[in-house]
Automatic annotation (TrEMBL):
Keywords: Antiport, Cell membrane, Ion transport, Membrane, Transmembrane, Transmembrane helix, Transport. It comes from the Bacteria. The chain crosses the membrane at residues 27-50, 70-96, 116-136, 143-165, 171-194, 231-257, 263-283, 295-318, 338-359, 371-390, 402-421. The keyword ATP-binding does not apply. CDD domains: MATE_like_7. The lineage of its organism: Bacteria, Pseudomonadati, Pseudomonadota, Gammaproteobacteria, Cellvibrionales. One of its GO terms (biological process) is monoatomic ion transport. Signal peptide: none annotated. One of its GO terms (cellular component) is plasma membrane. NCBIfam families: matE. This is Multidrug-efflux transporter. Its main location: membrane. InterPro entries: MATE_fam (IPR002528), MATE_MdtK (IPR050222), MdtK-like (IPR048279). It is a multi-pass membrane protein. It comes from Pseudomaricurvus hydrocarbonicus.
Amino acid sequence: MVISQGTFALMIFTDRFFMSLVSPTHVAATLGGGVAAFMCMSLWIGLLSYGNALVAQYLGAGKKSLCSRIVTQGLFIAGLCTPILWFMGYGVYLSFDGLGHDPQQLVLEKQYFEILLAWGFLTLFKACFSSFFAGIGNTKVVMIVDLLGVVINVPLSYSLIFGYAGAPEMGIAGAAWGTVLSNFTALVLFFLFYRSRSNSTEFSVADSYQFDRPLFNRYWRLGFPSGLEMFLNVAAFNVFILLFQSYGVTAGASAAIVLNWDLLSFVPMVGLHIAVISMVGRCMGAQDFQRLNSVISSGFVLGLMYSGSLALLFIFFRESLVGVFMTSATENDAIFQLSSWMMIGMASYVMADAVILVAGGVLRGAGDTRWLMVTSVLLHWLMVLAQYVVIVELQLGPKMAWMIFVGLILALALAFTLRLTGSGWRKHIPQEWTPVEAANL
């Protein structure tokens, strides 16, 4: 799962690197448009991704036929949510005009956003199958599909951006279409793996294509808080990015560069988060609480070792890492200096990210989704309020705004740790599992 999520980070990283070969404005536009598109999709991705925990719980309880039914309920949800996704996207598209961005950047980020959002339903359907394979522990399938996706995406995006190998020169639109086509390929591959003879037999796939109200309701009831949490958090992050970009192209390009390196640390750890959710869910289903404690400790060891190594890399080699994006089209001393300073702040919170993802995976796998939603959303939007005061009212510089963002990550890590060390989240185990057992017997 770490490798799988790493391929996703690599796709975004290469898109922004290719844009750095064009101009700083293009780099800033991919950040603004990309985050806005993901914000619209995040509500439904978060909801559908909870299928991982549900599949793992039923697998742990020995009810394999219900694992495939979870996929079917997820596909129903994805289909129902697609028109809502487009409606949300239309509203966000109109809101770009009031953000005060550079006119050239505004045109580019709207173009990038429009393509990604129109085909966002591919990501939703893909999440259903990815969650199934993560939930049953067959993460090799997820890795293979995502690796093939990035193998297709990188050369395809390069060709479409710059007009190589007979492809039209599409600029930032080419980067978006490369992502769409790789998502479509990944979805087809997931479906072929899902319908394979061994998988169909083991999980009774042929009998799963039916609406199951108890499963649908449970999927929605537990998944929606996760989806709402992700949506509101990404929305808060999006507002922060848009406010930060109001400082100008220098600040916008610097944020894109630093957050690009952040992707290569954070997104692979999302793979660990997914693995923890799956293993915790399986322990829930089997009522194996001794192994649950082992999963928790192992998750923290792996997360802190990985993030600690990256923190050292980001501190001691920050200027070299920023220099990767200092191409002939984007070379600018102000961007270099601000980005190098921001890398120090990023290095200080990567280990906190690991704590958040591991602790959050345990709590999510146990069904403690409402507490996660309330706490995480509250802290994120307090950060946005502070950013508004700093950037708009007090008109302080980008360094102060960045320090407030770093403070948010550290506060989240502390809150999640305190929750995990308490006993409140454990009460969800019997209350969430027993009713569903009764409903499906």
